[in-house]
Write a structure and sequence with these properties.
Structural class: mainly alpha
Distance between the termini: 185 Å
Largest sheet: none
Helix content: over 70%
Number of strands: 0
Order of helices and strands: HHH
Number of helices: 3
Shape: rod-shaped
Length: about 180
């Protein structure tokens, strides 16, 4: 047995990872590796009885190893599938939540736009009525000023006529006084 171990140490080991081989050829590769190892073990020169025991022991070792690797691979695939499924479900839930928020935001936007339009229409009416009221007040005040000025002009005209009449009387009185004093 020690000769077998030393013989196995001298020979380079050939290892292939599972990622190097395709999934369909993994069992064929495993079987060919097992066959190579078995042929190396049988060529060591030991007796047929020990060779059979070693072969059975080696076969059981490789079959157990193969079972463990396949179980581990299945577990990793299931975990990966579960992870992808969980990630998909999480993304789907997030998308649904965001879609609902988007819909409520759109509804709020429509309501705000309607309120803005109503407010602008109200302001236009208010601004128009305010403008009319201010224009009416301005025109009324201007008309009042115009009527006041017209009255003042009439009074001035009356005063000028009165002044002219008084000048004429004054001139006549001066002439009468000058004739009397002579």
């Amino acid at each position: 047995m020690s000769s077998q171990l030393s013989h196995n140490k001298d020979q380079p080991r050939i290892r292939k990872s599972l990622s190097d081989s395709s999934p369909t050829s993994s069992t064929a590769t495993t079987k060919s590796l097992r066959h190579e190892r078995l042929s190396r073990l049988s060529s060591t020169g030991s007796s047929d009885v020990s060779n059979d025991t070693t072969t059975n022991h080696a076969e059981s070792y490789f079959s157990r190893r193969e079972n463990r690797l396949s179980a581990r691979k299945k577990a990793e695939e299931e975990t990966a599938n579960n992870d992808y499924k969980k990630m998909y479900e999480k993304a789907l839930a997030t998308n649904q939540r965001l879609k609902s928020r988007l819909e409520t935001s759109k509804q709020e936007l429509v309501m705000i736009q309607e309120q803005l339009q109503r407010a602008q229409k109200g302001r236009k009416g208010e601004c128009g009525s305010n403008m009319l009221e201010t224009e009416k007040k301005e025109s009324w005040s201007l008309k009042k000023k115009i009527s006041d000025m017209e009255e003042q002009v009439k009074v001035k005209a009356d005063l000028k006529m009165e002044n002219q009449r008084l000048k004429d009387e004054n001139g006549a009185l001066i002439r009468v006084i000058t004739k009397l004093s002579k």
